[in-house]
């Protein structure tokens, strides 16, 4: 399914918002609750899936919905359509401070892999699926669990990240990244986890036990302030009868933060 063509404008610096311009009968899909405001004659409807599942019937719909359950996201995406006869605008914002990253999917080989809560909105026709991390070490220690979001299409997609965003272009190169700072990467990039070094560095270096290694040819998007890191700092300084180790619902508590370097 060919994606709708979207015009857009991004506003703000530290807490950005993306305003999408829709031609008549043009549609943008977004995460539930991401919409900030919209102009008249834009209708919206919560649907199960991204709209591409209808091509494969009921089983395709159930499969797509099941994938979103795995990522921890809502099974519904909201579809915003311009039902008028002139151009209208609708705006979307991230749920925490940071930047909105516009991605032309035609320039990524029609595929983008991103952390499971990074997707914000995209042109209708974009497939929002999942990618299972095949290496046990990567899934267990990578900070993003065993599942990444996989976006496929040929139109515009928008993802969000915390703090400042840096785009790295790798040309058969390798880069080591704090696991929480990785936002997204394109096809052609190999993703794995490696130990940080000796025992002293691992336990007292403050960078966690493992780093993400990205190698190959493609684009990598990094964030300076992962939401989990910001939340941990807030929880650590907030009055709590249970102590800071109960934040974020972590099963590992303080050990989990030590592993991730937070």
Summary of the model, kept short:
By secondary structure, the chain is an alpha+beta fold. The protein is built from five helices and 17 strands.
Describe it for me?
It is a single chain. The longest helix has 15 residues, at 57-71. A hairpin with a 5-residue loop joins strand 1 and strand 2 (17-22). The protein has 2 domains: 7-225, 4-Layer Sandwich (Double-stranded beta-helix), CATH 3.60.160.10; 228-260, no CATH class. By secondary structure, the chain is an alpha+beta fold. The radius of gyration is 19 Å and the shape is globular. It has 5 helices and 17 strands. The strands form 3 sheets. Strands 9, 11, 12, 14, 15, 16 and 17 form a 7-stranded antiparallel sheet that branches. The protein has a 6-stranded antiparallel sheet with strand order 5-6-3-10-13-8. Helices cover 17% and strands 44% of the residues. Mean pLDDT is 80; it is low at 246-255.
């Amino acid at each position: 399914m060919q994606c709708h063509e979207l015009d857009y404008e991004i506003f703000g610096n530290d807490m950005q918002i993306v305003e999408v311009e829709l031609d008549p009968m043009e549609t943008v899909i977004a995460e539930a609750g991401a919409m900030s405001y919209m102009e008249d004659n834009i209708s919206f409807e919560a649907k199960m899936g991204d709209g591409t599942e209808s091509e494969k019937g009921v089983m395709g719909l159930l499969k797509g919905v099941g994938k979103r359950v795995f990522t921890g996201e809502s099974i519904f995406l909201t579809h915003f359509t311009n039902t008028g006869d002139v151009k209208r605008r609708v705006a979307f914002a991230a749920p925490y401070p940071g930047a909105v990253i516009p991605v032309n999917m035609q320039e990524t080989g029609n595929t983008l892999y991103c952390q499971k809560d990074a997707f914000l909105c995209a042109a209708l026709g974009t497939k929002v699926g999942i990618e299972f991390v095949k290496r046990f070490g990567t899934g267990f220690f990578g900070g993003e669990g065993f599942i990444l979001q996989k976006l496929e299409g040929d139109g515009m997609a928008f993802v969000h990240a915390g703090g400042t965003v840096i785009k790295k272009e790798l040309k058969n190169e390798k880069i080591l990244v704090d696991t929480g700072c990785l936002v997204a990467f394109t096809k052609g990039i190999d993703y794995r986890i490696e130990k940080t070094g000796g025992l002293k560095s691992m336990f007292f270096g403050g960078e966690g036990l493992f780093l993400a290694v990205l190698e190959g040819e493609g684009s990598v998007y990094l964030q300076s302030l992962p939401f989990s890191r910001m939340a941990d700092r807030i929880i650590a300084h907030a009055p709590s009868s249970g102590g800071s180790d109960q934040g974020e619902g972590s099963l590992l508590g303080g050990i989990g933060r030590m592993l991730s370097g937070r």
